[in-house]
Hints:
Layout: H1 3-28, H2 37-59, H3 64-72, E1 74-88, E2 94-103, E3 110-118, E4 131-136, E5 144-146
Antiparallel strand pairs: 1-2, 1-4, 2-3, 4-5
Amino acid sequence: xxxxxxxxxxxxxxxxxxxxxxxxxxxxxxxxxxxxxxxxxxxxxxxxxxxxxxxxxxxxxxxxxxxxxxxxxxxxxxxxxxxxxxxxxxxxxxxxxxxxxxxxxxxxxxxxxxxxxxxxxxxxxxxxxxxxxxxxxxxxxxxxxxxx
Length: 148
């Protein structure tokens, strides 16, 4: 999960909301018909919630570089030789270091270590001896995405 991207997105939403709130309180609210203030507050709170939800959804999407790598990266596979759990994360997954032998067709196999956030549903696939599909950046062989 991209915590920094989510924090940045929510910071932008709060800043824009404060500007909208200032405009509403300073200019719009005094010129509205009496008795409509509760509805206006309800709309402002709803807009904030909707904007926060949309911003979090967009921020949690993969980055453009990751989408490009998934789409245009070289297909390959990684054979897991070792699994070492590092720490539990705050969203019921586990940060795990994998010792893998990476194979990309058309080149020699090479060894590497990958640190990945393993969700409980993916644990059976992340075991010693298992082979998992990967995408490798053709210009930087150290940039790898697991395709789980």
